[in-house]
Amino acid sequence: MPRPFATPRLALPLLVAGSIAAGSCAAIPGVGGGGPSQQIDTVVVMAYNIRHGEGTDGEIDLRRIARVIEAHDPDFVTLQEVDRGTDRVDGDDQARTLGSLTGLHHAFGRFMDYDDGEYGMAVLSRWPIVSVTNERLPDGDEPRTALKVRVRSPDSDQEIVIAGVHFYRTDEERLAQADRLIETLADETRPVILAGDFNSTPDDAVIDRFAGEWDILSKGRDRLTFPSTDPREEIDYVMVRPARRFYALEHRVIDEPLASDHRPLIAELIIRP
Q1: What CATH number has the domain bearing residue 151?
Q2: Distance (Å, whole) CA 85 – CA 71
Q3: Mind listing the pLDDT tens digit for each residue in 205-254?
Q4: Is residue 225 in a domain?
Q5: d(CA 206, CA 178)
Q6: Which among 24, 241, 245, 262 is least surrounded, fewest beta carbons within 10 Å?
Q7: Which region holds residue 161: left if phi is over 0, alpha if psi is between -120 and 50, else beta?
Q8: Mind listing the pLDDT tens digit for each residue in 77-112?
């Protein structure tokens, strides 16, 4: 089962949250056991399966997706089910378009060729992108990758990794994909935010695999993400590692039933050095 952040670890950031704007850098006296002040970054992260921009009304509308993103002013967005150049989206490079509409840097990770174009996922980032790695995961019914984007804070200069995932399809395939991803991130020394569509409910073995090494943020009572019109399953998650580098100020599901068949997640995190 997912392990939510413990209440004592939330106490300090809750006291300072009102004075720290998302995406900013601040000094918090006493962080780290009463020693010298340390600089920290606060960030807003969104995870959103956008179904190539097709809403529950059957309309493909990336501007509608962009409005959902802009309404929550995230620093990072992991996007699943993103097209580049396919016929079904009239040749649009959706990662680039959403980056342009939201004013964020973008990176695209290809899963496979599809419909005269490419199908995969993307990451949007307010912070400058240092490097992009599209890590191949074990294939299942469809090819899959993990899109890892290393970014640098313009305020503190600390670097973190944003990893987007979209596991698929059977339990066996998803477990193999999870194991490979955990293996590829095992030696990563920077703080990592892992977010996306895991296609796994909290009691699945896939989520249990991550629970040993990752903090899986609790969404509270309203935790269901799919389908967006009448959510019945929790299959989208935000996870972080190592726990000591993060404080969760907020994590919740956004009530958005129209723009896609998944509801997006939003998390506000403090990342300390």
Answers
A1: 3.60.10.10
A2: 27
A3: 999 999 988 999 999 999 999 999 999 999 999 999 999 999 999 999 99
A4: yes
A5: 7
A6: 24
A7: beta
A8: 999 999 999 999 999 999 999 999 999 999 999 999
Residue 2 within any structural domain of the chain: no
One-letter amino acid of 234: E
Domain count, the chain: 1
For 121-138, what is each residue's pLDDT tens digit?
Answer: 999 999 999 999 999 999
Is residue 1 in a domain?
no
Given a contact cutoff of 8 angstroms between Cβ atoms, the answer to whether 178 and 210 are in contact is yes
Q: Which of 196, 204, 98, 103 is nearest to 146 (CA)?
A: 196
- Model confidence at 38, pLDDT cuts 50, 70, 90, reads low
- Quick one: which of 111, 125, 130 has its CA closest to 193? 125
Q: Are 180 and 137 a contacting pair, CB within 8 Å?
A: yes
**Could you list the residue range(s) of the whole structural domain that residue 26 is in?**
7-271
Burial of 208 per CB tally in 10 Å (0-12, 13-18, 19+)? middle
β-pair type (76-84, 192-197): unpaired
Q: Are 106 and 124 in contact (CB under 8 A)?
A: yes
Burial letters 50-75, b for 16+ CB under 10 A, else e: bbbbbbeeeebebebbbebbeebebb
What distance in Å separates the CA atoms of residue 212 and residue 272, rounded to the nearest whole number?
Answer: 22
